[in-house]
Design brief:
The protein is of the alpha/beta class. The chain folds into 2 domains: 2-162, Flavodoxin domain (Rossmann fold); 197-365, Rossmann fold. Helices cover 46% and strands 15% of the residues. It contains 18 helices and 11 strands. The protein has helices at residues 16-27, 42-47, 49-61, 78-89, 93-96, 112-125, 144-162, 208-219, 256-264, 283-291, 318-330, 345-365, 373-388, 395-403, 414-426, 430-438, 440-445, 449-464, and strands at 2-7, 32-36, 64-70, 100-107, 129-137, 197-201, 224-228, 269-277, 280-281, 305-311, 334-340. Strands 6, 7, 8, 9, 10 and 11 form a 6-stranded mixed β-sheet that branches. A 5-stranded parallel β-sheet has the order 2-1-3-4-5, with helices on both faces. Helix 8 (208-219) links the parallel strand 6 and strand 7. Helix 4 (78-89) runs antiparallel to helix 10, helix 8 (208-219) crosses helix 12 (345-365) and helix 11 (318-330) packs across helix 13 (373-388). It is globular, with a radius of gyration of 25 Å. Bound molecules: flavin mononucleotide. Flavin mononucleotide binds at residues 9, 11, 15-17, 70-74, 106-112, 138, 238, 240, 242, 290, 293.
Length: 465
């Protein structure tokens, strides 16, 4: 069988993910794997019709498509995102229709599931038959146990093709939302109280998004900086070279860094506005997110109030919502809200006004919502990965983690370790153990009592402030 591998990495032959494909070539000598370097060659694919036709021919001739891509900022790299957009823009979906598809990613397992869900949804939209996803940690290929699982995964994919396995679509088709938003209520201006408000967008002229951006900007009484992300003058997507790891400095010498310093860094309230293209925001926005990787794992939005404006069916895009919300949380910022153009114009007006008001209020009070699973889990993944090996090259991350006490392994809390050991030993005494088992709920709430006792005093103190 002939498998068309669509490689998402900008690193081409030097891609970590591609090494997994090379492994498969050796493991399945009776099959051919032809690689399309969508990530590396995206510029050429955009510009040269004959190269694009060559790719479509490779897909057409194939028996199945294997998306082999790294996870970049919770999704696929911007370059692969752009490739998927091109399929839509150039009406090339037919070439993919009916083919079996699978996806293989490498990453450090941070939001690999959202990258998978995105590709799965895209395949469903193209009428492909998605057999499954395989997520490898970057170094998994070194382990024989993983190699075996990878072979089983691909065997299943090949069998699905051979037996023409029927597969149901998992992600429902997206509803079209026609442009309909015209602001109806003149905005009552919200005093920005000296907070710096920045709205970044990729709105097309005359779009709902443009109207939403304009209306939100008008909701604030003070000055608001509004900028199109094209003004960042990026020369291209993140190359994945990781040369930024040492000093948080990107190899690109284009306008991105200056744009970042001018708009993102000083913002107290940062609003990002984008239009849904296929199942995510545009490749341009994805490129913006990928390029922000120059700051490594240092939380770039720390302490900011962040909001999104989305033009498109966000209500049907749980994965996009998950990425947008988790991105804010991981960056140690607070999500004020997301306003879309899905409801009636009156509701959009009201939502934008509320967003403006809330963003200032929360910025004033310094509220940052406590992290939930994505950021808590993310912290532990990054901490372990950086300390466990990445710090040899990711020097800037290492410095930041040390300075901010982020190497907070439980093993370093010696007092707690002694306490746990002592409690554990006491549990060996049958009478103590019986008493604890009987009163477990009481013991669980006991350490919290002090907080309740001091709550009133603290409330009085807060009132006086
Ligand atoms: C810009 C950028 C963003 C990344 N984002 C993520 C991420 O969100 N989650 C993750 O687990 N790994 C992330 N990684 C790590 C890559 O997924 C990992 O290094 C991958 O193996 C690279 O594969 P490649 O060599 O095929 O490009 C990121 C790496 C880069 C350069």
């Amino acid at each position: 069988m002939q498998i068309c591998v669509i490689s998402g990495s900008p690193k081409g032959e030097k891609s970590v993910t591609l090494q997994y494909v090379r492994f498969l070539e050796e493991a399945f000598l009776e099959h051919t794997f032809s690689v399309v370097h969508a990530g590396r060659d995206i510029r050429t694919l955009e510009r040269q019709e004959e190269v694009w036709s060559g790719v479509l021919a490779a897909v057409k001739e194939s028996d199945g498509v294997l998306w082999a891509t790294p996870v970049y900022v919770m999704l696929v790299p911007a370059q692969l995102k752009r490739f998927i957009e091109l399929v839509g823009e150039r009406n090339a979906g037919e070439t993919f229709f009916g083919k079996h598809a699978a996806c293989l990613t490498t990453s450090i397992h941070y939001f690999d599931h959202t990258a998978h869900a995105y590709l799965h949804g895209v395949c469903d939209d193209l009428g492909m038959r998605y057999t499954g996803s395989c997520s490898a940690h970057m170094q998994d290929l070194e382990k024989e146990a993983f190699q075996e699982q990878l072979v089983l995964f691909v065997s299943d994919f090949l069998e699905a093709i051979a037996e023409e396995r029927p597969i149901l679509r998992e992600f429902s088709p997206l509803p079209a939302i026609s442009p309909h938003y015209t602001p109806t209520i003149p905005p009552a201006a919200v005093d920005t109280r000296g907070k710096r408000v920045v709205i970044l967008h990729d709105a097309e002229s005359g779009s709902d998004l443009e109207a939403m951006v304009r209306h939100l900007a008008a909701c604030y009484a003070g000055s608001v900086q509004v900028a199109h992300i094209r003004d960042a003058m990026m020369n291209g997507g993140c190359l994945g070279c990781c040369r930024c790891a040492f000093e948080n400095a990107c190899v690109y010498d284009d306008g991105f860094r200056a744009f970042w310093e001018e708009y993102v860094v000083p913002a107290d309230i940062l609003v990002m506005a984008g239009t849904v293209r296929d199942r995510f925001l545009s490749a341009a926005w994805k490129q913006f997110f990928d390029r922000s990787f120059f700051s490594g794992h240092v939380p770039a939005f720390k302490g900011k109030q962040v909001a999104y404006l989305v033009e498109g069916p966000l209500g049907h895009l749980a994965t996009l919502r998950e990425v947008l919300t988790s991105l804010v949380m991981t960056e140690k910022a607070n999500l004020v809200g997301i306003v879309t153009n899905e409801p009636d114009p009156g509701e959009i007006d009201a939502a934008l006004h509320t967003l403006a008001e809330r963003s200032v209020r929360l910025a004033d009070r310094g509220y940052i919502a406590p992290a939930t699973f994505p950021a808590v889990a993310g912290h532990k993944i990054f901490r372990d990965e950086i300390w466990g090996g990445m710090r040899a090259t990711f020097k800037a991350d290492d410095r930041y983690y040390r300075q901010h006490g982020l190497y907070d392994f439980p093993t370093r809390n010696y007092l707690q370790r002694i306490g746990t050991r002592a409690t554990s030993l006491m549990m060996c005494i049958p009478s103590v153990r019986r008493e604890v088992v009987k009163n477990m709920p009481t013991y669980m709430i006991q350490p919290l009592q002090k907080a309740i006792e001091t709550s009133r005093v603290l409330a009085e103190r807060r009132k006086r402030r």
